[in-house]
Amino acid sequence: MKFTLEEVKSQTFKARDAWWTVFLVDPLAGRLVVGTANRTSITPNQITWGALFLGLGSAGCFLTADWKWLVLGAVLYHFSFVLDCMDGKIARLKGTGTVLGGWLDYVFDRIRVLTCTLALMWGEYHHTGKDIYLLLGIAVVFLDMLRYVDALQVAKVRRQMRAELKKAVEESTAGQTPVFAEDLLREDPELDPDEIKTRAVEVIDLQQEFRSRFSWYIRVRDWLRDHRVRTHLVSGIEFQMAVFIIAPLVNQIIPVTIGAAALLLVFEFAIMYKLWLSSRDFTRALAEIKKGSPEPARVS
Asked: What PROSITE patterns does the record tag this protein with (predicted)?
């Protein structure tokens, strides 16, 4: 079976992804997936190993602290990330994904970040004698762990809120299953809020307060969604690319790393703030449900 580029896009590209991936990785990775899937028997796990080896090669270049080698290291890191995106695409395209493959992908990502951080910052410290590079190394590793832990915990809290609301609705309405407004709007972003309010089932909105405070966000979100870009504009991916690609290319390790770290923290705090607002919507919705006759939540 021969796969086309359109099939690769429709079956393997995420509906929303990091802007770095959408604009700078997917166009190349998609074409490489077509050739790899059609002309070779290379497995996703083999590609994952290839991404790791390129990442280790990048770390070796960073260790020299010479600008020409830093540029080569940045290029190798980018291609390592391209391969890292390819393994999942081929697994989804051919249906060959495994639990082991997912584990390898995660562990190798962390190894690549750790080794490249140690090599880049130690190389610069050894070359310049400036202690700030050691501090930046600690900060990069810490922030890489923080954003993973934060993402897992935020997802866990959201699942818990939805599960508790679903249970409360089912108990108060003899088994009726609630619908969440965010799910309806995700399926149909053009949905009229009045249509949501007139639905027969209970509609719960856990983003109501956030939208009421930041109405401009909807327009920005819609534009980004139309271009497959998620609203978390500085996530772990952009942070890594800033530290391991942009900083070495312009030979400005300190300012670029500090700037990227600051932007990452801003977006992480924004996620926490949004979760806090959702918890307020959760508390109100749960109180209304427990009254016995909750009114459908309004979507602003």
From this structure: CDP_ALCOHOL_P_TRANSF
